[in-house]
Amino acid sequence: MRESIRFYLGSVRHQVSGFSPTRTVLDWLREDRRRTGTKEGCNEGDCGACTVLVVRLEGDTLVWRAVNACIQFLWMLDGAQLFTVEDLRSPDGALHPVQQAMVDLHGAQCGFCTPGFVMSMVAYCKTPGASMEDEAINTALAGNLCRCTGYAPIVRAMKQALTAPADRLDTQTEAIKTRLKALVDGQTVEIAGPEGRVTLPASADALAAAYQADPQATLVAGATDVGLWVTKGLRTLPHLISVGLVPDLHKIEPTPEGLRIGAAVTYTEAKEPIAALLPDAGEVIRRIGSTQVRNAGTVCGNIGNGSPIGDGPPLLIAAGAVLKLRCGEAHRSLPLEEYFLAYGKQDRQPGEFIEAVVIPQPQPGTVFRAYKISKRFDQDISAVLGAFSLVFDDAGRIATTRIAFGGMAATPKRASATEAALQGKFWTEATLKAAQDAMKTDFAPISDMRSSAWYRQTVAVNLLTRLFVETAPEHAGTETRLAGWKEQAHV
Ligand SMILES: Cc1cc2nc3c(=O)[nH]c(=O)nc-3n(C[C@H](O)[C@H](O)[C@H](O)COP(=O)(O)OP(=O)(O)OC[C@H]3O[C@@H](n4cnc5c(N)ncnc54)[C@H](O)[C@@H]3O)c2cc1C
Ligand code: FES
Ligand code: FES
C-alpha cells in the first residue's frame, strides 16, 4: 500500500500526500505551484480556460490528452506527466509552434482564454492523424470559449501549427516513457488528508473490497460530474474511491456477447469502436461535452450518475446494451433499461459498482438512428435525445424495434407503446401516424430550464417523422441534416 501519489509536473517529479481528496489540479497548480498561466474561468468544465495536457503511457505508446484542470482531482494525476502552458517555451525563450502561430495570426486579444486554447491546440497536434479540416479542428477546440478574438484566427493558427516540425515535447518521448514506466508499481494507494481520504485500488478486486468495506464512499471515474459536486455544489466528500485509474477496468474489447466497455473507458476511447457498430451513436458521442470532457468522462460514469438527460443511456438502451455489475465477489448482468428505477434511484446494492457495459453486435439489417436536440450544437446537455433501432424482415416489415429517449421522463426510458405500434408493420405513413399517436402516451415530460414539456413532446413526435424520412423504403438515403450545420459548431 502506497500513501502518496507520484507524477511529473513538466520534468519535475512530485510525490504528494496529506491533501484533501477533492483538491483540484487547478487549485494545486495555481495556489501551491504558482503556475498561474492556467486560468480559472467557469470552474465547471465549460470554458476550457484551465486546459492542461496530461500524458500517460498505454502499452508502449504515449497518449496525450487535454483535460479541464478545474474538475480533475489532484490524485487523478497518479502515474501521469502533466504539462501546463509554462512548459511550452524552450529554455532559449523560443515559443512553441502553437504559441508562435497564435502570435503570427493574431489568435489572441485580451489573452484570458489563450493558455487554455494553446494547450488544447498542442494536444490536437499530438493526436494521431490530426486533420486540417475545419470540422475536425472545430471539434477539437469546441471546449474552449473565447469572447473577444473570434475563432477564425485561432483556427488559422491551428492549421499553421499542424505544419510545424516536431516540438520539444516530442524530442522527450523516450525520456517521458522511461519516467512513466518507473512510476508503475501495481500498488493500491490510500491517501488521508484533512478533509477525508481517497483510495486508488490497483485492481477490480481491490476496488470491490474497498467499496464493500465502505459502501458510503463516492466512486469517481472521470470526475466530469463529481468534480462539479465539489466546485459548484461545494460538497465535502469524505471518502472517494477511484474507478478511472483501475487498470482491469480500462479495457474495451470484443467479446462473444458484444463490445465490452470497461468502467474506466472514456468517451474519447470508446467513440470509434462504438461508431464502428452504430455510426449514428458515434455522431452523438462527438457532441457529448467537449474534447476535454470526453477525454476524462467515461461511458459508465454517464450511466452511474443516473441522470434522465445523459446522452449515453438512451443510445445504449436502444442498442440492447447489458450492464455488468459487481458486489464483492458476486457478478450480475442487467439489461440497461432495468437499471434506472426512478429519478435518482438505480438498481444498485450497497457496495455494488458497474464493471462494464456490453453492446451486442447489431443484427444484420439493423437500422440505427440517434438524434440529440440541444440549444447549442456543441458542448450542451440534451433537451431530448431519441435513439431508434429497427430490424426489418425479408418482406420489409419491422420485425423488432427498440426505441429509447432521454429528457422525456424521470429516467432514460423505452417508448414501449411506440414500439408496439411499429412491431410487425410495414414502414408506411399510416404506421408513422399510429406510432406518433402512441408516443403521446409513452411520455409525460416536464418543463425545466432546458425546454418546456410541450417542446419536448413535440420534438419527440417530430423525431419519428425524421426517422421515417431517413429510413422508410421510399425515402431510402434521404439525409435530413442541414447542409452547413457543421460549420456552425462554434457560433
Ligand atoms: C462541461 C460538461 C459538459 C457535459 N456534456 C455532457 C453531454 O453533452 N452529455 C452528457 O450525457 N453528459 C455530459 N456531461 C456530463 C458528464 O461528462 C458525463 O455524465 C460523463 O459521462 C460522466 O462520466 P465520469 O467518468 O466523468 O463520471 P464521474 O463524474 O466520475 O461519476 C459520475 C457518477 O457515476 C458514479 N460512478 C462512476 N463510476 C461508477 C461505477 N463504475 N459504478 C457505479 N457508479 C459509478 C459516480 O459515483 C457519480 O455518481 C458534461 C459534463 C460537463 C462538465
Ligand atoms: S475553468 Fe472553465 S473549464 Fe475549467
Ligand atoms: S482573447 Fe479574450 S477571451 Fe479569448
Automatic annotation (TrEMBL):
Flavoprotein among keywords: yes
Gene Ontology terms for molecular function: 2 iron, 2 sulfur cluster binding; FAD binding; iron ion binding; xanthine dehydrogenase activity
Pfam families (alphabetical): CO_deh_flav_C (PF03450), FAD_binding_5 (PF00941), Fer2 (PF00111), Fer2_2 (PF01799)
Superkingdom to which the source organism belongs: Bacteria
SUPFAM superfamilies assigned: 2Fe-2S ferredoxin-like (SSF54292), CO dehydrogenase flavoprotein C-terminal domain-like (SSF55447), CO dehydrogenase ISP C-domain like (SSF47741), FAD-binding/transporter-associated domain-like (SSF56176)
Domain FAD-binding PCMH-type, chain residue ranges per copy: 191-364
Protein keywords: FAD, Flavoprotein, Iron, Metal-binding, Oxidoreductase
Documented EC number(s): 1.17.1.4
Keyword Iron set for record: yes
NCBIfam families in UniProt: xanthine_xdhA
Name the UniProt record assigns to this protein: FAD-binding molybdopterin dehydrogenase
Taxonomic lineage of the native organism: Bacteria, Pseudomonadati, Pseudomonadota, Alphaproteobacteria, Acetobacterales
